[in-house]
Specification:
Blueprint: H1 2-9, H2 20-26, H3 31-69, H4 78-94, H5 101-127, H6 136-149, H7 163-185, H8 190-210, H9 212-215, E1 228-231, E2 234-237, H10 243-264, H11 267-277, H12 279-284, H13 289-315, H14 325-338, H15 343-360, H16 366-383, H17 392-402
Antiparallel strand pairs: 1-2
Helix pairs in contact: 1-2, 1-3, 5-10, 5-13, 5-14, 5-15, 6-7, 6-8, 6-13, 7-13, 11-13, 14-15
Length: about 425
């Protein structure tokens, strides 16, 4: 990895000297610091692994002593449990007003929108263990629903609305699209389901590009109005400023995280966990697997549709290129990088990976920017496959897989089925 980093950061080659970049990046004294850093990093990882095992043994011994003294019940401090969410909310409220216009735009159009998308996909992939490669199609449904009901498509609607009041309509449209996709296909599993969802995403993309009499094709929809409220004596228009959209995003992200947390700890969430870990065993114990998988698809799709409305109203225009396959893969990467099944992990992972390319914009050439992005993802998948902030269950699966007990891949078929 460090040699790859040395090669990436070294001089480039040319058509007349193809090996110039390699020779002056690797076969020169400049490679020595990279090798030293690599050796030190390896030593720190090995030392950290040993220290973690020692600390884990000490903690487990102390917890066992607490269990014996308390009769098997370890009290949990409600204040300690609430400290992190409160601190995160304070930071989320306090910092954005002090950012400049560029970073406020990044905060809303990149970090905020993709955080919503990642939270929705986390229900499908992280909670229920269903690999969805066409997730961005529901984002397109929400965006084009907004364009339709604001009269910005060749097909005129029966009535026009401002995008704020289109939110429930778009959420319902995306939810129906999720049910339409899921109903005939969710009896499939693993790679077969991934291929079907991939096909659905391509169908929506091709429809948006080629059905010019409906979607306006490559030209897309322009001049989509901003959010506004004119009712009950309240008159407010969001306009082109980013902070008002950020507050809407923040409110809905907090609300969605609260609702998803309740779902995760409910009977529905336990059914999703059973399906994710072993669908055959879940069905054998009476869990209606198709029904609960369909529910996960519908909830994830509706969240994506909601993000589509916010995006269309904020940016003011959409085209078919906003909904390509790469976007679905990017959202899936955000979920896996942050930690499947962990809402805090998905939140941090989405924010960081959307911030990173923008941070590198001024110091790294565009052709090299995503090389660093890809290298970071490779390193995380090697050294921390459970994600940056994994859920406790996912972390346990990884540890069991390392010990040869069960499997950590929640998206594949069980060994006995394979």
């Amino acid at each position: 990895m460090v040699l790859l980093l040395a090669l990436i950061s070294g001089p480039g080659g040319s058509s007349t000297a193809l090996s110039y970049g390699f020779r002056h990046s690797i076969l020169r004294p400049r490679v020595i610091p990279f090798v030293v850093v690599g050796v030190v990093a390896w030593a720190l990882v090995e030392l950290g692994r040993t220290q973690r095992q020692t600390v884990r043994s000490a903690v487990m011994g102390r917890l066992e002593g607490v269990r014996r003294r308390t009769g098997g019940v370890i009290p949990r401090n409600r204040l300690t449990r609430s400290a992190l969410p409160i601190a995160a909310l304070v930071v989320a409220v306090a910092i954005p007003p002090f950012l400049n216009g560029y970073w406020q735009t990044v905060l809303v159009q990149e970090m905020g929108i993709f955080t919503l998308l990642a939270l929705g996909l986390n229900v499908v992939v992280g909670f229920a263990g269903l690999l969805d490669l066409g997730y961005i199609a529901f984002f397109a449904v929400g965006s084009y629903t907004t364009a339709y009901f604001t009269g910005r498509l060749p097909v005129l609607p029966p009535f026009t609305l401002n995008p704020f009041w289109i939110l429930p309509i778009a959420i319902l449209a995306a939810l129906i699209a999720g049910v339409v996709l899921g109903a005939p296909t969710l009896r499939l599993r693993g790679d077969y389901l991934a291929i079907v969802t991939l096909g659905f995403g391509e169908i929506v993309f091709s429809f948006a590009r080629n059905k010019t009499d409906v979607t306006n094709g490559d030209s897309g929809a322009f001049n989509i109005p901003h959010f506004s409220i004119h009712t009950a004596g309240i008159h407010y228009t969001w306009g082109g400023k980013q902070l008002p959209y950020y507050w809407v995003l923040l409110v809905f992200v907090v609300l969605i995280m609260f609702l998803f947390r309740r779902l995760e700890n409910s009977r529905v969430g336990r059914a999703w966990t059973a399906i994710r870990e072993d669908e055959v065993a879940a069905a054998a114990t009476g869990v209606p697997t198709v029904r609960y998988k369909l529910l996960a698809f519908a909830i994830g799709a509706s969240t994506s549709g909601f993000a589509g409305v916010l995006y269309a109203a904020n940016v003011g225009f959409i085209t078919d290129t906003n909904f390509v396959l790469q976007q679905s893969i990017l959202v899936l990467v955000l979920v896996i990088f942050g930690g499947m099944g962990s809402m805090w992990g998905v939140l941090v992972g989405a924010a960081f990976l959307e911030w990173l390319p923008e941070k590198l914009r001024g110091s790294v050439p565009p052709s090299d920017r995503f090389i660093y992005f890809g290298l970071l993802i490779i390193l995380v998948m090697i050294f921390r496959p459970q994600g940056m902030i994994p859920s406790r269950r996912r972390a346990l699966e990884i540890r069991q897989a390392e010990a040869g007990i069960g499997e950590a891949d929640a998206l594949g078929l069980p060994k006995e089925v394979q």
